[in-house]
Amino acid sequence: MNQPALTTSARTILRIVVGFLFAAHGWQKFNEFTIAGTQASFAQMGVPAAQVAAPVIATLELVGGVALILGVLTRVFAVVLAVDMLGALFLVHAPAGVFATNGGYELVLLLAAAALAVALVGAGKVSVDKVLFGRANSKLRVLA
Length: 144
Hints:
This protein is mainly alpha-helical. The protein has six helices and no strands. Helix 1 (3-31) packs antiparallel against helix 3 and helix 2 packs across helix 3.
């Protein structure tokens, strides 16, 4: 087996799927729920500063998701998205228990873990980060 090829494929698949899910959730907050609806929902759930948090989180999830799909500033966006999901876990979902059917935290925990995994392994060879920062002498190589 070709381990480097499998590693490249695994990183790429994980990054794209996680990015897609975050982008979908951000898009949903803008288009299905609307920002006003998301603000009201956040306020009802007890999210602090819901009027500011809703558009910031919606934008983060949409832009961050697209960035992960493309592999642009992957580690940075992945860490911020993981923190976003941990916030959702502790501020909203933890009291409902594990299962999403009861409003629980299983999905946000999985997304946080997946985003953290992407942050730890980086974007991989098939990414904009590799093109921009992947040179051996690049001072920003850690971003690749």
